[in-house]
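so i finally got all the pieces together for this one. its two components total, 795 residues if u count the protein bits. some of the lines might not be protein, just check the labels. i wanna see the whole assembly predicted at once instead of chain by chain like last time, that was a mess tbh
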Amino acid sequence: MNYFELYNLPAQFEIDLSKLKQHYQTLQKLTHPDRFASASEQQKRMYLTKNAQVNDAYTVLRSPVSRGEHLLGLRGIELANEQETVGDVNFLMQQMEWREALEDADSVDALNQLAVENKSEVDAQEATIRALLEKNTESDNKQAADELRKMKFMLKLASEIDAKIDTLEA
Amino acid sequence: MALLQIAEPGQSAAPHERKIGIGIDLGTTNSLVSAVRSGQCVTLADEQGHHLLPSVVHYATDSIDVGFHARDNSNADPANTIMSVKRFMGRTLADVTQHWHQLPYQFSSETTSPRFITPKGEFNPIQVSSHILSALKTRAEASMGEEITGAVITVPAYFDDAQRQGTKDAAQLSGLNVLRLLNEPTAAAIAYGLDSEEEGVIAVYDLGGGTFDVSILRLNKGVFEVLATGGDSALGGDDFDHLVADYVSNTLHLDDASQKLNHRRLMNIAKQAKECLSDNTTFNGELQLLQASGETVQSNITVSLETFNELIADLVKKTIATCKRALKDADVSIDDVNNVVMVGGSTRVPLVRAQVADFFGKVPLTSIDPDKVVAIGAGIQADILVGNKPDSDMLLLDVLPLSLGIETMGGLVEKIIPRNTTIPVAKAQEFTTFKDGQTAMMVHVLQGERELVEDCRSLAKFTLTGIPPMVAGGAHIRVTFQVDADGLLNVTAMEKSTGVQAEIQVKPSYGLEESEILSMLQSSMQNAKHDMQARMLKEQQVEASRVLEAMQGALAEDGDELLNDEERSAIEASLFALVDTAKAGDIEAIKQAITKVDKLSQDFAARRMDKSIQKALSGHSVDDI
């Protein structure tokens, strides 16, 4: 299923988020099961399925990683099912340094500092992915898949930083 | 235009006829029912003028008594007076007795789910709840003077699948048509009429007797979107009472034995003190202390508001920490919150109000009685769902309160749908066989946030059978987990390469099987077999008229554009057949006629849906230019 099509948006990485939100509201009003509380069973089933798609599509399109992944899926590259891991040695080293920094950070301030650094890495990574997906050649798409995998690592780190801040604050 | 004659008088509802939708707050301690009357949603009173119905059921040899009478006489027959049955819903007996010791009830030893043994027979929590719901339904019918079309029933936001399913089953047993299970905090937000505001973020702080939860909602042009929920299912006003009781016991230097002996008395005076301190700065009371000899000695008890606040400060702080986490989950800041809604009797405590106001930086809304606010919101939603307000823009988007996952190797849980995902939602997961020629497979579904199977709640075990025999790893079974708007799970499975639909046998870990529901429904109508038939026939006839009405409208609107002559005449023929069958009164035949219409009109319905979506979205694009 092409989620860009469902939301009447061009199938590209860069999307208008306010338009996405606006279309989400419109689609909810059209397809939510509560609109069919006294409809026939057939309509209930049909709209329940459609509304679940509307929700999933919104989640997928809203976040850059899943949007990029979905776009690659439409271009024939499945990220979720492949066994490939990041082979970039430099990135792996970088990854280890980040992990050590996270382990060493023992104050909320230090963790916040890490979060700021992580955020700028994520933003830069997103820009790289955007550029690759715009080119849309076979090799650029492959490269984009690699970069998306790296971005997933970065975001995982971000949530671990968050979790550690939570435990320190509690 | 022959189709215009299809609607027979009395068979379909006239377009302007008002239908009655009721809202029900099925509470642990008390329950309420509400409905819209003269444009205003109000809670409905019984003949004596009571709005609250104590959620207490007394079973005698020849009667079932619900409410005040049952509660006030509970001391006389505690073993057969079931209180707080909501705590048993969707739980095993062991779960409940672990938290609540010394329950006076007698339980059947035959089942792991609790079954109360009474002189009237054995009853499970679903049946007990259905007796409370029946009393509310009867009250609503008497009060409104009309038949009830449907009900919206509220549940705590943190209720898991088993607890929700149990609540829905109970309603079905009591003969109510459930329009929706609605989360309590969402209902409260509706009650305050906040949907009339353009845009904003709402926090709902709900502190009841035994539970606390907080929800963060975003409102945009009538659409309430739940962003996050959080809470503590073991923190409430009762804990305040415990702290005050301990304090009183300490000031009186009671020893353990004396404390135990006076437990009920201490709790009662603590509750009195708490309630008094909602409006006063000091509480003075008398406690009749029971001695080992059986005599009583009077003690004067004084509790100042200051002392009370000190005692409960840590608990209140804990609720604020939960609010903080919920805001974080929702990804909104405190400044974004425009309104704070207070729900639950325990929000009458001044320190609670002050701390909440302090944290959010604004005075919380308290103008609606915190005990009634949930029922009122449910009634407003019910009125919309039965179709009395076709122009209403209000829409509620709820979230899954707890993550859904499946058991994987080593007793670990793999999350499939994370908590706070907007529902309805569907997610597919692929499984493969690990032995040559394997034709069956078991899937264990769990709900919760922890990593180990034993720390999550087991919802059901599914056995997939009918998998085509292949080499190990050859079969790819796609299992789809679908959660509907009520937060209820439904599972389907298919083998991908062959397209074979695998059979699913569900073994619910806590709830009841479909067949059990049916047999309970039948036994509740044992003396009225005829009623059962009549009810089923009526349900089918109503469904038939729904189908007819919907198809007539659809044909008039889009028949010319979306159907060729052949398709159209096939659908029309099936509709004529349905009209004839519906009149005849054979339940099975009506079902079949409806299925036939469904089958023939399936593509048409899908085309219409796609057309309406395209039209609405392209309309937006024009606006944007």
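Chain B touches chain A through 47 residues (CB under 8 Å).
Residues 587-624 of chain B form the longest helix (38 residues).
anyway lmk what u think
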